[in-house]
Amino acid sequence: MPLRIGVPKEPAAGERRVALVPETAARLVKGGIEVLIEKGAGLRASYPDKSYEEAGAGFAGDRAELFAKTDLVVQVGPPTPEDARSYEKPGGILISLVYPGRNLDAVRAMNEAKLTVFAMDLMPRISRAQAMDVLSSQATAAGYRAALLAAELSPRFLPMLTTAFGTIRPAKVLVCGAGVAGLMAIATFRRLGAMVEAYDVRAAAAEQVQSLGAKFLAPPVEASGSGGYARELTEEERAKQRELLSSAVAAADAVVTAANVPGKKAPLIITREMLRRMRPAAVVVDAAAESGGNCESTKPGSRVEENGVIIVGPTNLPGELAHHSSYMYSKNVEAFLKILIGPDGRVVPPEQDEILGATLLCGAGSLKHGPTRELLEVR
Ligand SMILES: NC(=O)c1ccc[n+]([C@@H]2O[C@H](COP(=O)([O-])OP(=O)(O)OC[C@H]3O[C@@H](n4cnc5c(N)ncnc54)[C@H](O)[C@@H]3O)[C@@H](O)[C@H]2O)c1
């Protein structure tokens, strides 16, 4: 019997992405895998049922049928606890973004349902896993959307304009956190003609920032942690950072923040005090809202105004670019499936591959990911 892969409609309200796009489905079908789509799963990402039909995929009328008929389910967002329970079946496999630290109830339910779960967000940043790096693919989309959102909310032009009716100076933009999302925001702002300054606690980000034509604000303290990521700052270091950034924030027409420290709440960078010094109608797009936000006034999922400054904290920026975010996620999953499914069409035991081992969250009723196990024990 060929392996059957199921693609449900995303369980989270407002999630527009789909885990497999028709192009990937066609290649899987060509490779001898059956692909079953829940009707309408790709619609909100502009992939109609017809395009899956042309790719050779089959359809399931609802989630229950889809789960019952497939060996492996691929999702974008983490399942709800009910979702996880409904998928209980011997040997059932789920591939999804999970963010276990934020979704412990779902993790518990998946573990109790004895599901084998591969969390794409646990993908190691090693070169062999580059094609599967969902954090980078979705951060690329997030950074692009964040810059466009800032441009959209701002009542100002971003480029310099010299016209018969006056000269407009280019907008000043500040990007805090020059990781994958931040760099994409910088590149997008530059294409729109803004003058861009960027800040990161990793001095190594300077070269990347400058290569995009932006000015790098050197950190007062170097805070590279393990694996090329940033570490958390001490209170004293945070004070130095506030001092450095205060005038850059005050001078900015728009700020995008995209700073994160793996496994921690997003660092606080823009304080209320800094916001008070910003000019009227300045815009702050907090692209770290989902992990707690970089701005003191951010309300995740909402727009607030303080002293005329607009602050937004979108919680699913990649979902706002659903067509291409889904395309990239689908390519990530396809690369992962090439490792997970052996040449004989069977699932490879996770202990046989470093990437499978690193992403395995739980299996056969036991939690395999140490940090998540600790979090659940603490609770
Ligand atoms: N395959 C690979 O090897 C690979 C792939 C992607 C990214 N990376 C590297 O991983 C690193 C982080 O990438 P990411 O975007 O996923 O990171 P991330 O989402 O964890 O963080 C985003 C950025 O926020 C910065 N930051 C953290 N605390 C800050 C603070 N207090 N003030 C300002 N900035 C702060 C970080 O230094 C990082 O650049 C980068 O060095 C990137 O080049 C490697």
Give descriptors for this structure.
globular; 13 helices; Rossmann fold; binds nicotinamide-adenine-dinucleotide; alpha/beta; 379 residues; 35% helix; 2 domains
Number of strands: 17
Overall mean pLDDT score? 94
Share of β-strand residues: 15-25%
CA radius of gyration: 22 Å
What would you call the structural class? alpha/beta
Please list the strands of the largest sheet in the order they lie side by side: 3-2-1-4-5-6-16-17
Number of domains: 2
CATH topology-level fold name of the largest domain: Rossmann fold
Largest sheet: 8 strands, mixed
Outline the structure in words:
The protein is an alpha/beta fold. Helix content is 35%, strand content 17%. The protein has 13 helices and 17 strands. An eight-stranded mixed β-sheet has the order 3-2-1-4-5-6-16-17, sandwiched between helices. The chain has a seven-stranded mixed β-sheet with strand order 11-10-9-12-13-15-14, sandwiched between helices. The chain has a two-stranded antiparallel sheet with strand order 7-8. Helix 6 packs antiparallel against helix 11. The mean pLDDT is 94. Bound molecules: nicotinamide-adenine-dinucleotide. Nicotinamide-adenine-dinucleotide binds next to helix 6 and helix 7. The site of nicotinamide-adenine-dinucleotide has 29 residues, from helix 6 and helix 7.
